[in-house]
Amino acid sequence: MSDCLFCKIIAGDIPSAKVFEDETVYAFRDINPMAPVHVLVVPKCHIASANEVTGENASVVADIFKAIPKIAAAEGLTNGYRVITNCGEDGCQSVKHLHFHLLGGKKLPDQMG
Ligand code: AMP
Ligand code: ZN
Rounded to the nearest whole angstrom, what is the distance from the C-alpha of residue 96 to the centroid of ligand 2? Predict the structure, then answer.
């Protein structure tokens, strides 16, 4: 999608701090980190949100969850981490390209704000 921020980041048109990349997955540091480690893990193909995951494209979600333990290990998250995806208006999703927040590096709050 030509007007999608994360598609532009994946294409290299907007700079990012890349931490992982394979054929289908791209991961980079969140520009506004909410934890000592805050990485966004995204599919290279444009999927607008979790609500647009289908039988046709769901394999990339498995690819993302295969990448996450590798990224977590590389980032030193030996004591655990949190994975979040925000979806739609009530989920406060601000970028309409499916992404998983990987958060860690400290004991995270156990309740939603
Ligand atoms: P969400 O609110 O779940 O849609 O998350 C979007 C995330 O993208 C936020 O945590 C932002 O800080 C992050 N973000 C926005 N623009 C950039 C960017 N250019 N590079 C890295 N992260 C970004
Ligand atoms: Zn996109």
Answer: 7
For residue 2, the model assigns a pLDDT of 78
The answer to whether residues 46 and 78 touch, using CB atoms and an 8 Å cutoff, is no
Domain boundaries, the chain: 5-104
Q: Give the pLDDT confidence score for residue 111 in this predicted structure.
A: 78
- Name the token pair of 82: 């949190």
With a cut of 50, list the residues of the chain below it in pLDDT: none
Q: Which ligand is nearest to the CA of 8?
A: 2
Distance 56 CA to ligand 2 centre (A): 17
For residue 87, what pLDDT is reported?
A: 98
Tokens of 96: 């309409």
**Where does 12-111 have alpha helices with state H?**
59-74
The closest ligand to the CA of 100 turns out to be 1
CATH topology of domain 5-104: HIT family, subunit A (3.30.428)
